[in-house]
Design brief:
homodimer, 11-stranded mixed beta sheet
Chain lengths: 267, 267
Protein backbone atom coordinates (compact mmCIF):
# COMPACT_ATOMS: atom_id res chain seq x y z
CA UNK A 1 0.00 0.00 0.00
CA UNK A 2 1.22 3.48 -0.98
CA UNK A 3 -0.43 6.49 0.66
CA UNK A 4 -0.15 9.69 -1.39
CA UNK A 5 -0.71 13.13 0.12
CA UNK A 6 -1.09 15.98 -2.35
CA UNK A 7 -0.76 19.42 -0.80
CA UNK A 8 -3.07 22.33 -1.43
CA UNK A 9 -0.56 24.51 -3.28
CA UNK A 10 -2.08 25.90 -6.47
CA UNK A 11 1.13 25.27 -8.48
CA UNK A 12 0.83 21.48 -8.14
CA UNK A 13 0.02 19.55 -11.32
CA UNK A 14 -3.18 17.72 -10.42
CA UNK A 15 -3.59 16.18 -13.88
CA UNK A 16 -0.09 14.70 -13.71
CA UNK A 17 -0.89 13.13 -10.33
CA UNK A 18 -4.19 11.75 -11.70
CA UNK A 19 -2.45 10.15 -14.74
CA UNK A 20 0.18 8.67 -12.48
CA UNK A 21 -2.48 7.21 -10.15
CA UNK A 22 -4.20 5.63 -13.17
CA UNK A 23 -0.91 4.04 -14.37
CA UNK A 24 0.14 2.82 -10.93
CA UNK A 25 -3.29 1.28 -10.26
CA UNK A 26 -3.24 -0.38 -13.70
CA UNK A 27 0.13 -1.91 -12.77
CA UNK A 28 -1.42 -3.36 -9.61
CA UNK A 29 -0.14 -0.86 -7.03
CA UNK A 30 -2.56 -0.35 -4.13
CA UNK A 31 -2.97 3.36 -3.42
CA UNK A 32 -4.85 5.71 -1.14
CA UNK A 33 -5.05 9.46 -1.73
CA UNK A 34 -5.29 12.28 0.82
CA UNK A 35 -5.47 15.87 -0.44
CA UNK A 36 -5.26 19.30 1.11
CA UNK A 37 -6.52 22.74 0.12
CA UNK A 38 -5.06 25.41 2.42
CA UNK A 39 -4.10 27.89 -0.29
CA UNK A 40 -7.49 27.79 -2.04
CA UNK A 41 -9.26 28.06 1.32
CA UNK A 42 -7.39 31.28 2.02
CA UNK A 43 -8.49 32.70 -1.34
CA UNK A 44 -12.15 31.74 -0.87
CA UNK A 45 -12.17 33.00 2.72
CA UNK A 46 -10.91 36.38 1.46
CA UNK A 47 -13.56 36.43 -1.29
CA UNK A 48 -16.30 35.65 1.24
CA UNK A 49 -15.15 38.44 3.54
CA UNK A 50 -13.81 36.19 6.30
CA UNK A 51 -10.03 36.35 5.72
CA UNK A 52 -7.81 33.67 7.29
CA UNK A 53 -6.29 34.30 10.69
CA UNK A 54 -3.27 32.46 11.96
CA UNK A 55 -2.37 32.11 15.63
CA UNK A 56 0.80 31.09 17.43
CA UNK A 57 0.38 28.54 20.21
CA UNK A 58 2.23 28.79 23.53
CA UNK A 59 4.65 26.18 22.19
CA UNK A 60 5.37 28.27 19.10
CA UNK A 61 3.36 26.38 16.46
CA UNK A 62 1.54 28.49 13.90
CA UNK A 63 -1.91 27.23 13.01
CA UNK A 64 -5.07 28.40 11.32
CA UNK A 65 -7.68 29.97 13.60
CA UNK A 66 -10.75 27.85 12.95
CA UNK A 67 -13.90 29.53 14.20
CA UNK A 68 -17.24 28.13 13.07
CA UNK A 69 -17.42 30.23 9.90
CA UNK A 70 -13.85 29.29 8.96
CA UNK A 71 -14.72 25.61 9.46
CA UNK A 72 -17.66 26.05 7.09
CA UNK A 73 -15.51 27.70 4.41
CA UNK A 74 -12.84 25.03 4.98
CA UNK A 75 -15.47 22.34 4.30
CA UNK A 76 -16.73 24.17 1.20
CA UNK A 77 -13.25 24.18 -0.32
CA UNK A 78 -11.78 20.87 0.89
CA UNK A 79 -14.91 18.67 0.68
CA UNK A 80 -16.79 20.52 -2.05
CA UNK A 81 -14.61 22.30 -4.57
CA UNK A 82 -11.37 20.31 -4.34
CA UNK A 83 -12.52 16.83 -3.31
CA UNK A 84 -15.08 16.75 -6.12
CA UNK A 85 -12.51 18.15 -8.56
CA UNK A 86 -10.25 15.18 -7.72
CA UNK A 87 -13.12 12.71 -7.93
CA UNK A 88 -14.28 14.09 -11.29
CA UNK A 89 -10.78 13.99 -12.79
CA UNK A 90 -10.32 10.40 -11.59
CA UNK A 91 -13.78 9.35 -12.80
CA UNK A 92 -13.05 10.84 -16.22
CA UNK A 93 -9.82 8.81 -16.27
CA UNK A 94 -11.74 5.60 -15.50
CA UNK A 95 -11.03 5.29 -11.76
CA UNK A 96 -14.15 4.69 -9.67
CA UNK A 97 -13.25 7.33 -7.08
CA UNK A 98 -15.26 7.97 -3.91
CA UNK A 99 -14.52 11.26 -2.17
CA UNK A 100 -14.81 11.33 1.60
CA UNK A 101 -13.84 13.67 4.38
CA UNK A 102 -12.45 12.39 7.65
CA UNK A 103 -15.80 13.29 9.20
CA UNK A 104 -17.62 10.73 7.02
CA UNK A 105 -17.77 7.44 8.85
CA UNK A 106 -15.26 9.04 11.26
CA UNK A 107 -12.41 8.08 8.95
CA UNK A 108 -10.13 10.53 10.78
CA UNK A 109 -11.16 10.50 14.43
CA UNK A 110 -9.47 12.42 17.22
CA UNK A 111 -9.77 14.82 20.09
CA UNK A 112 -11.01 18.35 19.66
CA UNK A 113 -8.92 21.07 21.25
CA UNK A 114 -11.87 23.27 22.12
CA UNK A 115 -9.72 25.82 23.83
CA UNK A 116 -6.51 26.98 22.22
CA UNK A 117 -3.82 28.60 24.35
CA UNK A 118 -2.07 31.21 22.26
CA UNK A 119 0.41 34.03 22.59
CA UNK A 120 -0.38 37.44 21.13
CA UNK A 121 2.42 39.98 21.38
CA UNK A 122 3.93 38.04 24.27
CA UNK A 123 0.64 37.81 26.21
CA UNK A 124 -1.08 34.52 26.89
CA UNK A 125 -4.70 34.15 25.78
CA UNK A 126 -7.23 31.36 25.65
CA UNK A 127 -9.26 31.07 22.44
CA UNK A 128 -12.64 29.38 22.55
CA UNK A 129 -14.96 28.59 19.60
CA UNK A 130 -12.04 26.83 17.97
CA UNK A 131 -12.64 23.70 15.91
CA UNK A 132 -9.29 22.00 15.58
CA UNK A 133 -7.93 18.66 16.66
CA UNK A 134 -5.52 15.83 15.99
CA UNK A 135 -6.22 12.50 14.30
CA UNK A 136 -5.78 9.58 16.69
CA UNK A 137 -7.64 6.76 14.92
CA UNK A 138 -8.31 5.87 11.28
CA UNK A 139 -11.43 3.94 10.27
CA UNK A 140 -9.57 1.34 8.20
CA UNK A 141 -12.70 -0.86 8.10
CA UNK A 142 -14.56 1.64 5.93
CA UNK A 143 -11.53 2.18 3.68
CA UNK A 144 -11.04 -1.60 3.25
CA UNK A 145 -14.78 -2.03 2.57
CA UNK A 146 -14.49 0.46 -0.31
CA UNK A 147 -11.15 -0.65 -1.76
CA UNK A 148 -12.25 -4.29 -1.50
CA UNK A 149 -15.21 -3.48 -3.77
CA UNK A 150 -12.98 -1.71 -6.32
CA UNK A 151 -13.53 1.89 -5.25
CA UNK A 152 -10.71 4.41 -4.85
CA UNK A 153 -11.17 6.54 -1.72
CA UNK A 154 -10.10 10.18 -2.03
CA UNK A 155 -9.72 11.54 1.49
CA UNK A 156 -9.55 15.06 2.88
CA UNK A 157 -9.88 16.93 6.19
CA UNK A 158 -11.83 17.78 8.32
CA UNK A 159 -11.90 14.91 10.79
CA UNK A 160 -14.41 13.97 13.48
CA UNK A 161 -14.01 14.52 17.20
CA UNK A 162 -14.97 11.66 19.52
CA UNK A 163 -18.25 13.57 20.00
CA UNK A 164 -18.83 13.66 16.23
CA UNK A 165 -17.98 17.33 15.75
CA UNK A 166 -16.13 18.42 12.61
CA UNK A 167 -12.54 19.35 13.42
CA UNK A 168 -9.86 20.96 11.30
CA UNK A 169 -7.03 18.44 11.27
CA UNK A 170 -3.67 18.72 9.56
CA UNK A 171 -3.79 16.86 6.25
CA UNK A 172 -0.16 15.69 6.34
CA UNK A 173 -0.49 14.23 9.79
CA UNK A 174 -3.85 12.65 8.83
CA UNK A 175 -2.11 11.04 5.82
CA UNK A 176 0.65 9.84 8.16
CA UNK A 177 -1.96 8.22 10.41
CA UNK A 178 -3.56 6.52 7.38
CA UNK A 179 -0.15 5.23 6.24
CA UNK A 180 0.56 3.99 9.77
CA UNK A 181 -2.82 2.28 10.07
CA UNK A 182 -2.16 0.36 6.84
CA UNK A 183 1.54 -0.25 7.63
CA UNK A 184 2.13 1.28 4.21
CA UNK A 185 5.21 0.60 2.11
CA UNK A 186 5.52 4.33 1.52
CA UNK A 187 3.92 7.66 2.33
CA UNK A 188 4.54 10.04 -0.58
CA UNK A 189 3.98 13.72 0.24
CA UNK A 190 3.81 15.92 -2.85
CA UNK A 191 4.36 19.66 -2.40
CA UNK A 192 5.50 22.62 -4.49
CA UNK A 193 9.13 21.93 -3.56
CA UNK A 194 11.47 19.19 -4.79
CA UNK A 195 11.59 17.85 -1.23
CA UNK A 196 13.05 18.91 2.10
CA UNK A 197 15.54 21.76 1.68
CA UNK A 198 18.57 22.46 3.83
CA UNK A 199 18.31 26.17 3.04
CA UNK A 200 14.71 27.04 2.28
CA UNK A 201 13.78 28.15 -0.38
CA UNK A 202 17.00 27.27 -2.24
CA UNK A 203 15.99 24.18 -4.23
CA UNK A 204 19.61 23.24 -4.87
CA UNK A 205 19.97 22.41 -1.16
CA UNK A 206 17.65 19.38 -1.43
CA UNK A 207 18.28 16.78 1.25
CA UNK A 208 18.31 13.40 -0.52
CA UNK A 209 18.14 11.00 2.41
CA UNK A 210 17.41 11.06 6.10
CA UNK A 211 18.09 7.81 7.96
CA UNK A 212 15.20 6.83 10.19
CA UNK A 213 15.93 7.83 13.76
CA UNK A 214 17.58 11.06 12.63
CA UNK A 215 14.38 12.67 11.34
CA UNK A 216 13.93 14.55 14.61
CA UNK A 217 17.37 16.10 14.18
CA UNK A 218 16.45 17.30 10.68
CA UNK A 219 13.54 19.30 12.10
CA UNK A 220 16.02 22.19 12.44
CA UNK A 221 15.96 22.57 8.63
CA UNK A 222 12.21 22.59 8.42
CA UNK A 223 10.53 25.96 7.93
CA UNK A 224 6.90 26.97 8.46
CA UNK A 225 4.44 24.41 7.17
CA UNK A 226 7.31 22.02 6.41
CA UNK A 227 7.72 21.52 10.18
CA UNK A 228 4.33 19.81 10.39
CA UNK A 229 5.22 17.67 7.38
CA UNK A 230 8.37 16.43 9.09
CA UNK A 231 6.42 15.83 12.33
CA UNK A 232 4.00 13.73 10.25
CA UNK A 233 6.92 11.82 8.74
CA UNK A 234 8.37 11.03 12.16
CA UNK A 235 4.94 9.87 13.38
CA UNK A 236 4.49 7.72 10.27
CA UNK A 237 7.91 6.05 10.63
CA UNK A 238 7.27 5.46 14.34
CA UNK A 239 3.84 4.08 13.37
CA UNK A 240 5.38 1.41 11.15
CA UNK A 241 5.47 3.04 7.70
CA UNK A 242 8.52 1.79 5.79
CA UNK A 243 9.46 5.03 4.06
CA UNK A 244 8.31 8.65 3.84
CA UNK A 245 9.12 10.58 0.67
CA UNK A 246 8.78 14.35 0.22
CA UNK A 247 8.67 14.97 -3.51
CA UNK A 248 7.84 17.48 -6.20
CA UNK A 249 4.15 17.72 -7.12
CA UNK A 250 4.75 20.09 -10.03
CA UNK A 251 6.19 17.49 -12.43
CA UNK A 252 4.96 14.65 -14.69
CA UNK A 253 4.60 11.21 -13.03
CA UNK A 254 5.22 12.73 -9.57
CA UNK A 255 4.41 9.58 -7.57
CA UNK A 256 6.37 7.18 -9.78
CA UNK A 257 9.36 9.52 -9.70
CA UNK A 258 9.21 9.77 -5.92
CA UNK A 259 9.01 5.97 -5.60
CA UNK A 260 11.90 5.76 -8.10
CA UNK A 261 14.24 7.81 -5.91
CA UNK A 262 13.52 11.51 -6.39
CA UNK A 263 12.82 13.86 -3.49
CA UNK A 264 13.78 13.43 0.17
CA UNK A 265 13.60 9.84 1.39
CA UNK A 266 13.18 9.13 5.09
CA UNK A 267 13.54 5.46 5.91
CA UNK B 1 -36.95 1.33 2.85
CA UNK B 2 -37.95 4.98 3.17
CA UNK B 3 -36.13 7.55 1.01
CA UNK B 4 -36.22 11.08 2.45
CA UNK B 5 -35.49 14.13 0.34
CA UNK B 6 -34.93 17.37 2.24
CA UNK B 7 -35.08 20.48 0.10
CA UNK B 8 -32.60 23.32 0.18
CA UNK B 9 -34.95 25.95 1.60
CA UNK B 10 -33.35 27.81 4.49
CA UNK B 11 -36.56 27.74 6.57
CA UNK B 12 -36.48 23.95 6.92
CA UNK B 13 -35.78 22.58 10.41
CA UNK B 14 -32.70 20.43 9.87
CA UNK B 15 -32.35 19.54 13.56
CA UNK B 16 -35.93 18.25 13.65
CA UNK B 17 -35.24 16.05 10.62
CA UNK B 18 -32.02 14.76 12.23
CA UNK B 19 -33.82 13.84 15.50
CA UNK B 20 -36.53 12.13 13.53
CA UNK B 21 -33.98 10.12 11.52
CA UNK B 22 -32.34 9.03 14.79
CA UNK B 23 -35.71 7.87 16.25
CA UNK B 24 -36.84 6.10 13.08
CA UNK B 25 -33.52 4.28 12.73
CA UNK B 26 -33.66 3.28 16.40
CA UNK B 27 -37.10 1.81 15.75
CA UNK B 28 -35.66 -0.28 12.92
CA UNK B 29 -36.80 1.76 9.91
CA UNK B 30 -34.38 1.59 6.97
CA UNK B 31 -33.75 5.08 5.60
CA UNK B 32 -31.75 6.85 2.94
CA UNK B 33 -31.34 10.64 2.84
CA UNK B 34 -30.96 12.92 -0.18
CA UNK B 35 -30.58 16.67 0.41
CA UNK B 36 -30.59 19.78 -1.73
CA UNK B 37 -29.13 23.26 -1.40
CA UNK B 38 -30.43 25.53 -4.15
CA UNK B 39 -31.24 28.52 -1.95
CA UNK B 40 -27.85 28.54 -0.19
CA UNK B 41 -26.10 28.09 -3.54
CA UNK B 42 -27.78 31.24 -4.83
CA UNK B 43 -26.58 33.18 -1.78
CA UNK B 44 -22.98 31.93 -2.05
CA UNK B 45 -22.93 32.51 -5.81
CA UNK B 46 -23.98 36.12 -5.18
CA UNK B 47 -21.32 36.54 -2.49
CA UNK B 48 -18.64 35.15 -4.82
CA UNK B 49 -19.65 37.53 -7.59
CA UNK B 50 -21.13 34.89 -9.90
CA UNK B 51 -24.89 35.37 -9.39
CA UNK B 52 -27.28 32.59 -10.44
CA UNK B 53 -28.80 32.66 -13.91
CA UNK B 54 -31.92 30.78 -14.84
CA UNK B 55 -32.85 29.81 -18.37
CA UNK B 56 -36.08 28.66 -19.98
CA UNK B 57 -35.85 25.63 -22.24
CA UNK B 58 -37.68 25.38 -25.56
CA UNK B 59 -40.27 23.21 -23.78
CA UNK B 60 -40.83 25.86 -21.12
CA UNK B 61 -38.92 24.37 -18.18
CA UNK B 62 -36.96 26.79 -16.05
CA UNK B 63 -33.57 25.53 -14.91
CA UNK B 64 -30.34 26.81 -13.45
CA UNK B 65 -27.67 27.79 -15.97
CA UNK B 66 -24.70 25.67 -14.92
CA UNK B 67 -21.47 26.90 -16.45
CA UNK B 68 -18.19 25.56 -15.07
CA UNK B 69 -17.88 28.19 -12.34
CA UNK B 70 -21.50 27.65 -11.26
CA UNK B 71 -20.83 23.88 -11.07
CA UNK B 72 -17.86 24.58 -8.80
CA UNK B 73 -19.90 26.82 -6.48
CA UNK B 74 -22.72 24.25 -6.57
CA UNK B 75 -20.24 21.58 -5.39
CA UNK B 76 -18.88 23.88 -2.67
CA UNK B 77 -22.33 24.36 -1.20
CA UNK B 78 -24.00 20.97 -1.78
CA UNK B 79 -20.99 18.67 -1.17
CA UNK B 80 -19.00 20.89 1.19
CA UNK B 81 -21.06 23.22 3.34
CA UNK B 82 -24.42 21.41 3.44
CA UNK B 83 -23.46 17.75 3.08
CA UNK B 84 -20.89 18.03 5.87
CA UNK B 85 -23.37 19.99 8.01
CA UNK B 86 -25.80 17.05 7.72
CA UNK B 87 -23.07 14.50 8.39
CA UNK B 88 -21.81 16.41 11.44
CA UNK B 89 -25.30 16.77 12.93
CA UNK B 90 -25.98 13.06 12.39
CA UNK B 91 -22.57 12.04 13.79
CA UNK B 92 -23.20 14.18 16.88
CA UNK B 93 -26.53 12.39 17.28
CA UNK B 94 -24.81 8.99 17.12
CA UNK B 95 -25.55 8.04 13.50
CA UNK B 96 -22.48 6.89 11.55
CA UNK B 97 -23.24 9.05 8.54
CA UNK B 98 -21.22 8.99 5.31
CA UNK B 99 -21.78 11.95 3.00
CA UNK B 100 -21.49 11.30 -0.71
CA UNK B 101 -22.36 13.14 -3.89
CA UNK B 102 -23.84 11.39 -6.88
CA UNK B 103 -20.45 11.78 -8.56
CA UNK B 104 -18.76 9.59 -5.94
CA UNK B 105 -18.81 6.01 -7.14
CA UNK B 106 -21.23 7.27 -9.82
CA UNK B 107 -24.13 6.91 -7.37
CA UNK B 108 -26.28 9.12 -9.63
CA UNK B 109 -25.27 8.36 -13.21
CA UNK B 110 -26.86 9.81 -16.31
CA UNK B 111 -26.43 11.63 -19.57
CA UNK B 112 -25.01 15.11 -19.78
CA UNK B 113 -26.96 17.60 -21.85
CA UNK B 114 -23.90 19.42 -23.10
CA UNK B 115 -25.92 21.73 -25.27
CA UNK B 116 -29.04 23.35 -23.91
CA UNK B 117 -31.65 24.69 -26.30
CA UNK B 118 -33.25 27.75 -24.74
CA UNK B 119 -35.57 30.59 -25.58
CA UNK B 120 -34.57 34.16 -24.79
CA UNK B 121 -37.23 36.76 -25.50
CA UNK B 122 -38.86 34.43 -27.99
CA UNK B 123 -35.61 33.66 -29.86
CA UNK B 124 -34.08 30.19 -29.89
CA UNK B 125 -30.48 29.84 -28.73
CA UNK B 126 -28.08 26.97 -28.07
CA UNK B 127 -26.07 27.18 -24.86
CA UNK B 128 -22.77 25.30 -24.64
CA UNK B 129 -20.50 24.95 -21.57
CA UNK B 130 -23.50 23.69 -19.65
CA UNK B 131 -23.06 20.94 -17.05
CA UNK B 132 -26.50 19.52 -16.44
CA UNK B 133 -28.05 16.12 -16.90
CA UNK B 134 -30.63 13.62 -15.74
CA UNK B 135 -30.09 10.62 -13.46
CA UNK B 136 -30.71 7.33 -15.29
CA UNK B 137 -28.99 4.79 -13.01
CA UNK B 138 -28.37 4.56 -9.27
CA UNK B 139 -25.35 2.66 -7.91
CA UNK B 140 -27.34 0.59 -5.41
CA UNK B 141 -24.33 -1.73 -4.91
CA UNK B 142 -22.33 1.02 -3.22
CA UNK B 143 -25.32 2.14 -1.11
CA UNK B 144 -26.01 -1.46 0.00
CA UNK B 145 -22.31 -1.97 0.76
CA UNK B 146 -22.43 1.00 3.14
CA UNK B 147 -25.81 0.37 4.74
CA UNK B 148 -24.93 -3.32 5.17
CA UNK B 149 -21.92 -2.28 7.26
CA UNK B 150 -24.03 0.06 9.43
CA UNK B 151 -23.27 3.37 7.73
CA UNK B 152 -25.95 5.92 6.87
CA UNK B 153 -25.40 7.43 3.39
CA UNK B 154 -26.25 11.12 3.03
CA UNK B 155 -26.57 11.82 -0.68
CA UNK B 156 -26.55 15.03 -2.68
CA UNK B 157 -26.13 16.23 -6.28
CA UNK B 158 -24.15 16.57 -8.52
CA UNK B 159 -24.26 13.31 -10.43
CA UNK B 160 -21.82 11.75 -12.89
CA UNK B 161 -22.21 11.63 -16.64
CA UNK B 162 -21.44 8.35 -18.41
CA UNK B 163 -18.05 9.93 -19.21
CA UNK B 164 -17.44 10.69 -15.51
CA UNK B 165 -18.09 14.42 -15.71
CA UNK B 166 -19.85 16.18 -12.83
CA UNK B 167 -23.39 17.15 -13.83
CA UNK B 168 -25.96 19.26 -12.04
CA UNK B 169 -28.94 16.95 -11.57
CA UNK B 170 -32.27 17.73 -9.96
CA UNK B 171 -32.24 16.51 -6.36
CA UNK B 172 -35.92 15.56 -6.24
CA UNK B 173 -35.70 13.47 -9.37
CA UNK B 174 -32.45 11.90 -8.12
CA UNK B 175 -34.24 10.96 -4.88
CA UNK B 176 -37.09 9.52 -6.97
CA UNK B 177 -34.57 7.37 -8.88
CA UNK B 178 -33.06 6.16 -5.57
CA UNK B 179 -36.53 5.31 -4.24
CA UNK B 180 -37.34 3.49 -7.48
CA UNK B 181 -34.05 1.56 -7.45
CA UNK B 182 -34.80 0.29 -3.92
CA UNK B 183 -38.53 -0.22 -4.62
CA UNK B 184 -39.01 1.94 -1.53
CA UNK B 185 -42.12 1.82 0.65
CA UNK B 186 -42.20 5.60 0.54
CA UNK B 187 -40.42 8.64 -0.85
CA UNK B 188 -40.89 11.54 1.58
CA UNK B 189 -40.14 14.96 0.08
CA UNK B 190 -39.80 17.69 2.72
CA UNK B 191 -40.16 21.30 1.60
CA UNK B 192 -41.11 24.66 3.12
CA UNK B 193 -44.78 24.01 2.32
CA UNK B 194 -47.27 21.68 4.02
CA UNK B 195 -47.50 19.70 0.77
CA UNK B 196 -48.89 20.24 -2.70
CA UNK B 197 -51.22 23.25 -2.82
CA UNK B 198 -54.22 23.71 -5.07
CA UNK B 199 -53.75 27.49 -4.98
CA UNK B 200 -50.10 28.27 -4.38
CA UNK B 201 -49.09 29.82 -1.97
CA UNK B 202 -52.35 29.46 0.03
CA UNK B 203 -51.51 26.73 2.53
CA UNK B 204 -55.20 26.15 3.33
CA UNK B 205 -55.60 24.66 -0.17
CA UNK B 206 -53.46 21.60 0.66
CA UNK B 207 -54.25 18.59 -1.51
CA UNK B 208 -54.46 15.61 0.83
CA UNK B 209 -54.44 12.70 -1.58
CA UNK B 210 -53.74 12.04 -5.22
CA UNK B 211 -54.61 8.58 -6.47
CA UNK B 212 -51.79 7.03 -8.48
CA UNK B 213 -52.51 7.38 -12.16
CA UNK B 214 -53.96 10.86 -11.64
CA UNK B 215 -50.66 12.48 -10.67
CA UNK B 216 -50.13 13.72 -14.21
CA UNK B 217 -53.45 15.49 -14.08
CA UNK B 218 -52.44 17.26 -10.84
CA UNK B 219 -49.45 18.81 -12.61
CA UNK B 220 -51.77 21.71 -13.46
CA UNK B 221 -51.67 22.76 -9.78
CA UNK B 222 -47.88 22.61 -9.57
CA UNK B 223 -46.06 25.93 -9.68
CA UNK B 224 -42.40 26.64 -10.44
CA UNK B 225 -40.03 24.24 -8.67
CA UNK B 226 -43.02 22.17 -7.48
CA UNK B 227 -43.50 21.01 -11.10
CA UNK B 228 -40.20 19.10 -10.97
CA UNK B 229 -41.22 17.60 -7.64
CA UNK B 230 -44.43 16.25 -9.12
CA UNK B 231 -42.53 14.97 -12.16
CA UNK B 232 -40.23 13.14 -9.76
CA UNK B 233 -43.25 11.72 -7.92
CA UNK B 234 -44.75 10.40 -11.13
CA UNK B 235 -41.42 8.84 -12.11
CA UNK B 236 -41.06 7.28 -8.67
CA UNK B 237 -44.57 5.77 -8.73
CA UNK B 238 -43.98 4.47 -12.26
CA UNK B 239 -40.65 3.09 -11.06
CA UNK B 240 -42.31 0.97 -8.37
CA UNK B 241 -42.28 3.22 -5.29
CA UNK B 242 -45.38 2.51 -3.19
CA UNK B 243 -46.13 6.05 -2.12
CA UNK B 244 -44.76 9.58 -2.54
CA UNK B 245 -45.45 12.11 0.21
CA UNK B 246 -44.89 15.87 -0.03
CA UNK B 247 -44.73 17.16 3.52
CA UNK B 248 -43.72 20.06 5.71
CA UNK B 249 -40.03 20.24 6.60
CA UNK B 250 -40.47 23.14 9.04
CA UNK B 251 -42.02 21.11 11.87
CA UNK B 252 -40.97 18.67 14.60
CA UNK B 253 -40.83 14.97 13.59
CA UNK B 254 -41.36 15.86 9.92
CA UNK B 255 -40.74 12.36 8.51
CA UNK B 256 -42.85 10.52 11.12
CA UNK B 257 -45.69 12.97 10.61
CA UNK B 258 -45.54 12.51 6.85
CA UNK B 259 -45.56 8.71 7.23
CA UNK B 260 -48.45 9.13 9.71
CA UNK B 261 -50.66 10.87 7.17
CA UNK B 262 -49.74 14.57 6.97
CA UNK B 263 -48.94 16.29 3.70
CA UNK B 264 -49.94 15.26 0.18
CA UNK B 265 -49.96 11.51 -0.37
CA UNK B 266 -49.60 10.12 -3.87
CA UNK B 267 -50.19 6.39 -4.01
Amino acid sequence: MIVVKVGGGTSLDIDAAVSDIVSLRAAGTELLLVHGGAQTTNQVAEALGHPPQFVTSETGHVSRRTDRRTLEIFEMVYCGQLNKMWVEKLQRAGVNAVGLSGLDGRIFEGTRKDTLRIKVEGRRMVLRDDWTGTVERVNTDLLRLLTGAGYFPVLTPPGASTAGEAINVDGDRAAAMVAGAFQADALVILTDMPGLLKQFPDESTLIREIPRGQADHFMQYAEGRMKKKVMGAVEAIEGGVRKVIFADGRVERPISRALGGEGTHIQ
